């Protein structure tokens, strides 16, 4: 039988396409098991973890995202086996050849004597061959990159041929040798010395084969030849339709493992905590494996098993030499009872751990479990180990509990993605991800949408993250077919789906970080899922099962886990008395480009609604790939940039980070809504709440700062008693250290900022790291009064010179307006310095964001364009000087907004094409102030508007921008909670946010005043006026038209001026998802009349500060 299977698997006959048979998924592949380390001694195992756990934020500093990452990947492969004498990495430079199909690979390339000198020598393992210039990356979201014809795949099926050479160390004599592939995409065959040793599918889990009988004898000088044939497409590809790049090859490490004749093959650590958490009953299920010569029955007649638990935390409490062996805290004994676990044919060891240090994301306490196999003489034969955590995952009504507490999931989805390496992992880059997550208050990660590198789990255990581990199953593309059944409904796919779930659970079962197993993603729902859930619940009842498919509320999920459900709908489910499961959003707040609006509204609901326990943002990082342009420079590429078809363009760019892990501005908002220290003010009482479930505030430092109208009034430390978890502390205004400053201040607006910092360095941040940062507005001491400009006696001169209205004040300043258009043609100050080149125009349009474009014909952008808002031209109906005195001049302009190609129709008294009317009144004072009063009357049949405001242009030399408003980072009306009101200063170029696909960006919300100046101090000041509310402000070298034109950031061309927008209203950016118009109503701009006023005035080096200008408007 084995010979027959071998003939079928290895045949070159095109009729034997085993990669198109979903019932044939592996051959000679060993059963799934935990990662094995093959230690030589107990002390060696402890030393291994002692060194491996010495990782902190400093490691992340060496993360690289360019070509240097290729060598870093090889260094990581070496590091991961350091200290393991019976594990050898084969990662490194291999011979590589890419054939166009499986049937066209070089004949007999698997043979030892095959001549491969003409092949490329590449750092091919671990890597994706597309990242070395072979074949091309393909990005799709839902559609398969080949015809949907399961289980068949294209005959044009790029096939990678790999060859490498290895010796078996002499120290491994008489040991069994195993070849271990961490992951290969998508299916592969392997040969050793020309002998086929196995076949496997599943591109995200290990495949292991015993090769003891196929290697040259240990005493031989001959090198062993390993040949691998990797197929880009297989029937397994139908189960791997995740929203990411399709990349191929041996993308994780290849290892050799050496084991004795009888060895520890697998083990499962379990703990059961007492009700009061004072002790834990611990148990380890151990599987032993023997060679053919040694019968499994009666193994313990000649062997014994021991297990010891060591307290890892003790190792780092002293600076000198550490006695690792002295940290033992529990010894586990063999349970001699027959059939201790029905159906389990291994061995069970048990014991008790008194006063265990519990594991949680807040306090990730770990122990080291060591299992020792000894022979009859007491000599160690084999040793395995892993890190374990003692914790209890359980359910209560509408709650997921960790150690009895309903922890809140402040999570993010994470694909494995490196812009240079594709799916290959680097130690420092994984640490970088975790450091950034921790520093931004993220405490949970969903492995989207497949099991990830084994080291990732160790790091999540160590740093403290709640994890959903997800099976490598997604069949989203089947949704597009009306006649092909989803695999979950087909018995022929059941074994393949179950194999992927079993492989995940068996590999990862000992990791404390995993709180839930996921059956996959977007794979429909059917009986196969019921089988997967049943197997997991039977295998591991200590964790929850998660699956969103079928509406997120099927019997196959223990968590209600919807995607992109609206706030009001999740609240409705939480309040449904018939639903007893907790609701955790498996995906929400789609971070595509300038996005993540409304996220604070989700967290207002989560923080205040029983039954809501958080969610996972989609997603962590923009999946852009590094691509060299025609000019030799490199940029971030997305779908279609490699000539890949089909493709889903930039839908892979929806992360909180750029590909090189530079944070998007929206990450500030995430950090704010996720922060565990919540501060609020009500009725002159400041409340400081510690929303942690395990940590007190003992290790934190609180400080305060008070600003009045943007100026610092005072600051200091805020001594507080330690606030217990889930507790709060209140401070009354009159007893607060800032009370006297507030009481004596004449400022109209007074803001209090409370900053919470780490007192001491941790694994993930240095001392002084800001954990939480909240600003509250203190009560107003006086009612609001309209702004009034102080009278200044300087006379002004106004005159009409042909088509020009000229207004000036001696030699101080001069404004020239076009008498026909009513626009400012120039505004100059002393020495002829220009402060406005052209303007001031009404403006309704913005360059559409990704979210604006989502929804096809129903999208905001489509509706705007259908209403011709993108093609709007403002025609001057009238411009007249209404009043002219020695102290002020009033000019009234009436604009009619019409499509650019329909302007001529106005001359024929045709009014039906008028989209809007704008009345603008300029009042120019001798002081140099210009008040612009705007009255906007859009047609009522227009869609919600992008913006209501004005646009003007200033000289590029006015590149120093200062503003009093929210900042310092980009913020918008529906994403501004983290942006504090203050005075900020930047260069105009620094305002630009380089989203990979350009669009509306770089805005600042709630701006009271803004100044643009050149390096000499000349410039223009603008502020709100009268009863007008704060503005949305934007200043950029790139015009709105340019931001709309370019498809990549590097394509943007700077204009000749700086384009400035001051908006009375600006639509939110949205972010509930990116494929429907979903800006919340309160952040939309309905087409109704609007009125607002602005103040502008010139600035010179002799001008007092912007603060003084702003104050000059206010009553004494």
Automatic annotation (TrEMBL):
Pfam families (alphabetical)? Bgal_small_N (PF02929), Glyco_hydro_2 (PF00703), Glyco_hydro_2_C (PF02836), Glyco_hydro_2_N (PF02837), LacZ_4 (PF16353)
GO cellular-component term (any):
beta-galactosidase complex
Q: Give the enzyme's EC designation.
A: 3.2.1.23
Asked whether the keyword tRNA processing is assigned, the reply is no
- One GO MF term attached to the UniProt entry: carbohydrate binding
Q: Which UniProt keywords apply?
A: Glycosidase, Hydrolase
Annotated signal peptide: none
Instruction: List, for all copies, the residue spans of the domain called Beta galactosidase small chain/.
Output: 806-1097
Q: Which family does it belong to?
A: Belongs to the glycosyl hydrolase 2 family.
Name of the protein this chain belongs to: beta-galactosidase
